[in-house]
Amino acid sequence: MVGAAAFGPRSPGVAEPSPSGAPTVPAHPAAPLLIVRIAVMAVAAWSLLATTVLVWFLAQGSFVAAVAVLGSPGRLLGPQAVGLWAIGAVGALGLFVAAFVLSQAVGRGLLRLLAPRPLSWPAALPRPDVPARLLAFPSERPDAFTFTLLHPSLHGRWSREEVVLVSEGLIASLTAEEQEAVIAHELGHVRDLDGRYLTFLRTFARLMRWDPILATVAAKLTRREEFRADEAAVALTHRPRALARAIYKATVLPASSTGALAGLLGPGGSAGRRQAYERIRRLVALAESGRFEE
């Protein structure tokens, strides 16, 4: 590990000093919350439309009659379609609730099943200014991910807890600087509230399997947030090559022996391998730009 002084000047919006003098990662996302709320409303509106169209298709009883709505979409706007929209609204709301409950249940279930042990927070990295845990779980596969647990309070509000999980295989395969870079990457996800909103969106998209557009949006946003988290990690550590090496070791090398990519920092399969190569190229380009001393 390196000392905090090695990080140089802090980037705006990445880490600010806490009253105790230790740096912290802001709890708010880098993008304004208004944008996040507008995005949530857009997803809600689209899910209402997609669910109502599904109800229409099921109600027609034949594929030919169902496809007819594509040539005359005004049928969904007439008074006779009020009942369909009501059913679609109930269905979309049910899926929203199910996605939230499922995403939270999976996080809590992982903590019970994996029985992770607590890790010491790297001295050179800031802590989030919300409750957060850094944990290691037993697994030979290099893996790391972040999720958010929401806890109800007495005043009707929800308190937020961030959980960063890393595998024992990751700890064993990476150097101290590479481990630090991975945790800094996860802190980028914490900063942008990915564990809350992006995890929910991916879960919601899986529940709405009949809607390929929502699945595409979730995949595109996931890819974008991985790049943003890489940039946040480099802003914290000033060591893009360390993160590039970590991605290579965790998502490229294991593929030849396990037959499947680990979940670290991105999707699995061939798409995950392509994304890993692209991220490594971007990080190497940052290292060669001369902006960082490694």
Question: Could you name the key traits of this structure?
Answer:
294 residues; 4-stranded mixed β-sheet; 57% helix; disordered N terminus
Quick take:
By secondary structure, the protein is of the alpha/beta class.
Low-confidence stretches: 1-22, 256-263
This entry's quaternary arrangement is single chain
Number of strands: 7
What is the count of structural domains? 1
Read across the widest sheet, the strand sequence of neighbours is 3-5-7-6
Count up the helices: 9
N→C terminal distance: 13 Å
Structural class: alpha/beta
Q: Tell me the radius of gyration.
A: 22 Å
For the largest beta-sheet, the strand count, sense and barrel status come to:
4 strands, mixed
Characterization of the model:
- The protein has one domain (29-288).
- The chain has nine helices and seven strands; from the N terminus they run ββαααβββββαααααα.
- The protein has helices spanning 33-60, 63-71, 82-114, 168-173, 176-191, 197-207, 212-237, 240-258, 269-288, and strands at 16-17, 23-25, 117-118, 127-128, 132-137, 144-152, 158-167.
- The strands form two sheets. Strands 3-5-7-6 form a four-stranded mixed beta sheet, with helices on both faces. It has a three-stranded mixed beta sheet with strand order 1-2-4.
- β6 and β7 (158-167) form a beta hairpin.
- It is elongated and about 65 Å long.
- The two termini are 13 Å apart.
